[in-house]
Amino acid sequence: MAVRIFLGLSALLWLPYGLLCFFQPTGLSGAGIMFTNPTGATELRAMYGGLQAAIGAVALLGALRPLLAERALTLLFVVCAGLGLARLLGAAIDGEVSSYTTMALALELGTVAITAFLLRRRPALVG
Length: 127
Prior knowledge:
The chain is mainly alpha-helical. It has helices spanning 2-23, 38-64, 69-94, 99-121.
């Protein structure tokens, strides 16, 4: 039950944010993320919109279909570990940790910790 609740909450965070970023990429300007041409807008729509909405959609599928829950947790673990590690390294290289970076790190690394915990306590699915 905890897995489905976590996946449902993850879907509620990732899916709407991804859709918002897709339809309003200028909304990221408050965090200092901007584009200067249509290619930049498309990139923000794809990486912040499409990718994050897809993460939310996978979490939703895992919440609604228990047979997909372990796969959804694994995807969240891998994607958030990659995002969190790259964000930590980027902040170290760039020498700045903004409030946006702090919140994103909390979400990403918190997700890594929770998914690791949930995956360890779930029996492995066979087949």
